[in-house]
Amino acid sequence: MKSFKELGVGPQFIQALEENNITAPTEIQEKAIPFLMTEERDFIGQAQTGTGKTAAYGLPMLHKINPDVKQIQALVISPTRELTQQINKQLFRFTKYAEKKIFTEAVYGGEKIDVQIARLRRPTHIVVSTPGRLIDLLERNAINLEQVKTVVLDEADEMLSMGFKADVDKILAYTNSKKSRTWLFSATIPNALKEIIDEFMDDDAERLVVSNEKIVAKGIAHQYAVVDINDKFDVAVRFLKAQGDKRGIVFCRTKAGAQALAKQLYSKNIQAEAIHGDLGQRDRDRVMRLFKSKRLQVLVATDISARGIDVDNLAYVLHYQLPDQFEYYTHRSGRTARAGKKGFSLAFVAPSELGKIDELEEGLHISFEKVDLRQ
Description:
It holds the Pfam family Helicase_C. This is DEAD/DEAH box helicase. The chain contains 14 helices and 14 strands. It is of the alpha/beta class. The strands form 2 sheets. The protein has a 7-stranded parallel beta sheet, sandwiched between helices. It has a 7-stranded parallel beta sheet with strand order 10-11-9-12-13-8-14, sandwiched between helices. α5 (about 115-120) links the parallel β3 (about 105) and β4 (about 125-130).
């Protein structure tokens, strides 16, 4: 395995990486960074969530920024507000020791657009945005992308599954007219994404596929409990109360399910609140402040709403409902055992779902331990 220095990353960025406990490149970083640093072609990187994609594109992108040009030179599009905020924070951390300041700005729905327009009047080199908010800014002529040379689509398949294809088409039609290079990162390449690749990306675009192996954090203990659907809530209450002051995230598949479960848990004196796509930005920020400040014990989340959640010292993840896709399990479980710490990921499964545990073990190269949560 090569070091970040051997990949061509400058010492000012390496110092910031080490400060954030990023010392050895992941597979996608090792393969993508040298290409993105030196080539001026489009790029397609297929890798699951949790493989280090932000650094894989972020470090080359930062190297290409000219701090003396006080205009937007790079654009990152991501599907959710939380992921947009996380990417922005990560890029900010990477630039801590840069010789000249590189300014990034996050824009997303749920915050007053006038506030964001005012921020964009300041010198800005990189903008991280959700698709809908970027379209709003372009239609108001409130953002200048004339000097953008790098466009990153992060979690591209999620953007399409959330209904953003028309917005992505508009954005790429605009940036392609400015001769920008496009870097696309996605866990899967569904047909709708193939259409975007065929229409907006060069035929000679570099393609990289990273295997599913070794993408789940090593510090996670994977467990499952067989629970009948009629007993699931009562078992969850016992389990969560047994955790005491430890904090964790409980995952549901739907917004309605997350909201209902949070209310039910609260009625049992468990400090729980839900975060999902229908929650306004002010309420989302309030819930996350409570959770990060440890005034909230349990966060009940959907897969999409949890994109970008980065909270230290979470003891566990509970899959109240199993996810539909392998990469969702990886993303969910990765909320615990961060920064070298230990944690566990517990899945509730009905007797009819036991085959899914076998599929997860085989597909993600992990082992599950069966636990008994009966009284």
